[in-house]
Amino acid sequence: MNTFVLLIVKLTGLLLLAPILQGMIKRLKGIIQGRQGPGVFQPFRDVKKLLAKQRVISRETSWVFGIAPIVAFAAVLTAALMVPWIDPTPWDYMSDLLLFVYLLAIPRFMMALAGLDASGSFGGMSSSREMAVSALAEPALLLALLTLALPAHSLNLQNLIGGTGAVPIFTPAGLLAGVAFFLVVVAELGRIPVDNPDTHLELTMIHEGMVLEYSGPQLALIHLTYWVKQMTLVLLLMNVFAPFGLTFAVDVAAEVAAVGWLLAKLAVAAVALALTETLLAKLRLFQMMDLMGLSLVLSITALLFMATGS
Amino acid sequence: MTLLALGWLFFFISFLTGAFGHDTAVGWRRFGCRMAAAGSAFILALGITGLSGTEWRFAWDIPAVLGPSKFVLDRLSGLFLTMLGGVGVAASVFSEGYLEHLEKRWNFHWMPICQALFLGSMAGVFVAGTIPTFLFFWELMALSSFGLVMLDSLTESRRRTGVIYLAMTHVGTAFLTLALLWPCARGGSGWAITDWVAGLAGFGGWERIVVIACLLIGFGTKAGMMPFHVWLPRAHPQAPSHVSALMSGVMVKTGIYGLFRFLTGFGVVLHSELGWVLLGIGFVSMLLGVLYACNEHHLKTLLAYSSIENVGIILLALGMGILLRTWGHEADAALAFSAGLFHAFNHAFFKGLLFMSAGAVQATSHDGNMDELGGMARTIPAASMLFFVGAMAISCLPPLNGFAGEWLVYRSVLSGFGLPGMASKIVLPLMAAGLALAGALAAGCFVKAFGAIFLGKPRSHAAEHPAAPGMKRMVAGMILPAVACVVFGVFPEIVIKPLTAMFEASRGLSYGPYALSWPGRPDEGVQPLLLLSCLAVGVLMAWWILGRRGRAPAAAVVETWNCGTPLTPRMAYTASAFAEPVKVNFAWLLQLRRDLRDHGPLAPLLPSRMTYRLDTVHLFVDYLYKPLLRGILTLSLGIQKLQAGSLNAYLVLLFAVIVGLLIMGGVR
């Protein structure tokens, strides 16, 4: 029963905080670029507007087009439940590392198919690129997490925290793995330098091209999915590689403090993502493979560090 | 025993319909297919009894042919018989519908004859208890499958494929015969598999190495492991689709069965070197297999390469198990072996399903080139949904069976990390990364296949044909493996429990409260049923969100946005275009050869008729087989000179041989 209540709380918090994180990143980006930027709550307004809009769908689409956003949303939401928030024990039954990595493959699979469904060039182009980038991003993600999982002798995400006995980013292996993980997060979220989330017309687009044919409530759902995925990856990065302020005790004061830490971490992540988006330029498509290759090499190096015990 | 006999009896009836039935009578053909399905159902029942722990041994003297034969049923044969029965029932039901579109093209006498022999001989391979019996069924299986590959052999290239298949499979059998008969002959106590083990135990250093290497080559050729895979991507696409499903789903697994039966079954003492070799072979097969699959635009060839990938994953688990066993971690080794077997089991179902869907596509469009298809989700929606299930399973997406199998393989690779030695700490995480890379590439590969065939606009008239006649029966056949994909994904313990019970070391271990778990690690694992309910809740929430339309009008259906220009089918990404980024990324491995030519009259000045060709160099074919073949041909030409010479030369030869023999005799 307790678990059930916690899950409800978590789900609600997730659906509320995830759009705010997106709003924060956009606002910060605006400020850094010398604009005012949209308000922090703009994503909520976007969703509200989209939900009231008429859907416009292509006549070329099949049943895949309809189920893709729904299945993607369900998979991302399930993955989000596995990630630790304020304490390292999110939900025992549902926090396997491999399951997490493969759950995140479901939305990719579904949206890549949806991109091909409308028969346009943009969708196909984006799907093809997405699958090529993820082919390298997925092993990098897995290896970065394994760097922490192997010394902890556990594939349970909750046991990763404190598995090395030290804060990972202060150890060489943890730091390398953390950087590798950050690169993967940037790629998974389709942010600069891998992709540009702000435009549909960029010829190098990946994520935006796949969802080009979606409109109205379906687009709102896709946005929501993206935000939840962003929140999940950011939380995982922060709580696994920099597990500051996680509470281990059932204690109201400690939990309030942990919530404070959580918000602070989200703010740090928002600043980091906004900064990378502003300071870096979009990479050419085939240089992106080098970036993912770099991430892969970093995580392999991290593993070697870990194996040699330094 | 009754079940086996009944299975063989029904296969025999099916055989008779081929031999004596009228080749244009639809009724005969259907009857034959149903008899094959009934026979397979008995084999399935036999497999389930074996898997659940019933063991029997049965001796049957057929002195003139095979000497005293023994048939043995245990959990290992039970597992493979379950595969054979399951895929066999599905393929037989499917074939009833599939054969309808072939009506005028093939000789329908040979189809049921070869298919019945094929099914029956595979069942024989799995229950054979003595080496001669095993080899007899092995050879029968090879010949009958050759017949099935050659059913449609009107063109030169198809006959050539048949010859390559026949040659490769017999080279494999030759190695196997040596590996299986030699230890028995040395031991001298009999021809049962246990005698083989005893004989091998008496062998010293290099003799053991030769036997194990021959065993690996023999079974590896059948399993399609690299570099002995070259026949597989040629032969599988050429057979009719339900036969491809059986070949890729089950026949390839006879090689896996052999490796497990002879290497893990009876406490053969193994060395860690074999484990490392298998890890290496598995790794190479897995990655090259999936890369070639990514570059393939013929659907059935793509599926064949993907089988090589999956065999690589199975061999990886086998190698890992051997390593763990040599390091003394018997319990982990048992789980690693089970992981490989479970993946083999799952692969039978999803690959069978995918090959049958490919058959439905080919029956409808008469074309297997994905670059010419498209939009078929509208003409054959049921087949597209079933292909979708198979594609998700093979891309190891949870909660389907592909994920359950790969989870165990991952887990067994990672369980080696805590072992002594630096090599394991460096190599094993790389193996895990390779698994992840292969998984992601496979997902890309099947997004490509599904998208190119079923989505978008039809790219040719072939893709616009209405559903083939007999589509209902084909779909009925495909539903069984699709259900299996879901059931074994959500309840993997149904198979894993009996599998692990096969190994003594795994008895009495403590598992966590999960369906997928690892012994001694009670705090981790995956609970697929819970996962499924979470996904269901997510779907309901999404449904609810989508329902918040407010006062918005119903959806408008319009043309796909295309920058204002009319949309033509050629604008959509083809399968070849989809794979382009992967090709560029792995160009160093695939060694692309681009060939852009202009055939116009004013060629270099005014480009008019351009052709573009992109080939990948298949490493093993171009760098191993072609030089080898050339070498053998040169050698035989050299020998030919000697042979076609004069009588004098023969006399000299004869004299030299006699002198040689005398010297050898004198030395002794």
Summarize the structure in short.
The complex is a heterodimer of chains A (310) and B (668). With 310 residues, chain A is mainly α.
Characterization of this structure:
The complex is a heterodimer of chains A (310) and B (668). Chain A has 310 residues and is mainly α. Helices cover 70% and strands 1% of the residues of chain A. In chain A, helix 9 packs across helix 10. Chain A is globular, with a radius of gyration of 19 Å. In chain B, the strands form 3 sheets. Chain B has a two-stranded antiparallel ribbon. In chain B, strands 3-4 form a two-stranded antiparallel ribbon. In chain B, strands 6-7 form a two-stranded antiparallel ribbon. Chain B is globular. The mean pLDDT of chain B is 85. Chains A and B meet through strand 1, helix 3, helix 4, helix 5 and helix 9 of A and helix 15, helix 16, helix 17, strand 4 and helix 20 of B. Strand 1 of chain A pairs parallel with strand 5 of chain B, so a sheet runs across the interface.
